[in-house]
């Protein structure tokens, strides 16, 4: 029913996922991948052979507590992982989308969060392998997760040739009590199937009211040479987009093309752009650092 509804009403690329498949959906050429990270400590979460997996886990767990040596009790630890099957399925989907970015959804956090993690296996045990593969071909990844029940975020550049960047954002979730209940609103800025920037708005829920807690921008990691005479802008000077355009615009250059160049400079910390989330050139503020 769900498949028929989505195919009929949105005409998006869609198929239902099995327990060991990632859920993949393309909306207006934006690829979304949802992983099931709650498979638990089973051989399905390992990248090589099940026997090797159990040997590694049993040795590790035995050092912590001998009573967990039995396989059934190890499974009860609910060791979070993505696993080879889900990852391979997602990579096939992403490689066929011809974009340089993706939005990833998963329950467990891929990186440690700013809390003391007393429980073993609190974060994904295979996050290194998963993130390394996701950012191949200079792909930019925005990963949204839960599990930690706090607002957190971390950005990582994988310093390998051809690797992109991952930004992981977590929030407290809406089932938390009081001021701890929060959510993330994500707005993407895309051109020609390429990620330029994203505006992040953190919302806190107080009763039935949502209030803005903080907002910030995430910029792409484009390393291309940009034909823009940025030195025409005075340092530490605030310009409207119109004022900056009078100094920087090439003949017959469109606003969209100029903004794309400015965003590429912003990713190198050369300029700061404020107001991207407003989706209006009139509300943009350009500052040369």
Descriptive terms for the model:
single chain; 289 residues; three-stranded antiparallel beta sheet; 7 helices; 24% helix
Helical element count? 7
Beta-strand percentage? 25-35%
* Helix content, binned percent: 10-25%
Between the first and last Cα atoms, what is the distance in angstroms?
53 Å
- C-alpha geometry: globular
Largest sheet: 7 strands, mixed
Structure class: alpha+beta
Average pLDDT, rounded to a whole number, is 78
Question: How are helices and strands ordered from N to C?
Answer: HEEEHHHEHEEEEEEEHHEE
Structure, briefly:
By secondary structure, this protein is an alpha+beta fold.
List the helices and strands and how they pair.
Blueprint: H1 2-9, E1 13-14, E2 23-27, E3 30-34, H2 50-64, H3 71-75, H4 84-95, E4 101-106, H5 127-134, E5 140-145, E6 152-157, E7 165-170, E8 182-191, E9 194-206, E10 209-219, E11 238-240, H6 241-248, H7 255-267, E12 271-274, E13 285-288
Parallel strand pairs: 3-4, 4-5, 5-7
Antiparallel strand pairs: 1-2, 2-3, 6-7, 8-9, 9-10, 11-13, 12-13
């Amino acid at each position: 029913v769900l498949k028929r509804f989505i195919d009929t009403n949105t005409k998006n690329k869609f198929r239902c996922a099995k327990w060991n498949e990632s859920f993949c959906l393309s909306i207006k050429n934006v690829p979304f991948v949802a992983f099931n990270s709650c498979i638990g400590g089973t051989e399905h979460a390992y990248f090589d052979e099940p026997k090797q997996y159990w040997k590694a886990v049993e040795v590790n767990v035995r050092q912590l507590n001998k009573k967990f040596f039995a396989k059934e009790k190890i499974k009860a630890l609910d060791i979070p992982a993505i696993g080879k099957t889900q990852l391979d399925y997602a990579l096939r989907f992403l490689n066929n989308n011809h974009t340089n970015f993706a939005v990833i959804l998963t329950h467990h956090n891929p990186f440690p969060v700013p809390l003391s993690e007393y429980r073993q296996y609190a974060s994904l045990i295979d996050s290194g392998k998963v993130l390394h593969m996701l950012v191949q071909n200079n792909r930019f990844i925005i990963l949204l997760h839960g599990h930690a029940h706090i607002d957190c975020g971390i950005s990582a550049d994988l310093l390998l040739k051809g690797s992109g960047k991952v930004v992981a954002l977590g929030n407290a979730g809406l089932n938390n009590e009081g001021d701890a209940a929060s959510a993330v609103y994500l707005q993407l800025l895309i051109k020609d199937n390429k990620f330029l920037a994203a505006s992040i708005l953190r919302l806190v829920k107080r009763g039935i009211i949502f209030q803005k807690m903080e907002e910030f921008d995430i910029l792409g990691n484009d390393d291309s040479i940009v034909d823009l005479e940025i030195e025409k802008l005075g340092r530490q000077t605030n310009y409207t987009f119109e004022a900056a355009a009078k100094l920087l615009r090439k003949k017959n250059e469109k606003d969209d093309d100029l903004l794309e160049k400015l965003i590429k400079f912003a990713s190198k910390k050369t300029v700061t752009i404020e107001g991207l989330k407003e989706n209006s050139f009139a509300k943009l503020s350009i500052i040369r650092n």
